[in-house]
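Thread title: Can someone regenerate the structure for this chain?

I was given the following input by a collaborator and told the matching structure tokens would be attached. They weren't. Posting the sequence so someone can regenerate them.
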Amino acid sequence: MIILQKSGKITEKDDKTNIILKFAVPKGIEKIIIKYSYSPKILENREKAAELIENCYDKYGEKITGSIADDMPVKNLITISVDDNGNYRGAAHRQAHEQEHIISKDFASPGFLKGEINSGEWDIMLNVHSVSCDVDYQITVEGEKE
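Best answer:
Regenerated them for you:
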């Protein structure tokens, strides 16, 4: 059963923020499946990417590599973390822009805690690490009963 289905847009003004998506888990759910994706992963505008890289050089005081081309491409990075009734259940701070994660009593995807699936209010937090253009996201949370 689908217990959360959400899509939206994250803009540059959301960079370095967290976006909380709340959802209710009904009684009897034994497995949570989270399907998450966003796009684009890469900033295609090379001129804008070069400007962002130059700004980082200025901010951090030195070039990390030999040239701007060495630091291309500029990538968007949005990860997720999950809370169960205010208790931390884990995080998937991975580079992939398409992911699927499972949480159940006997198994959890790496980064998440396995354990009873408690009914009540859960949160998925979109951790916006770096966004250099408008990014569309989609998230679906499915709950499975025994």
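Helices lie at 46-60.
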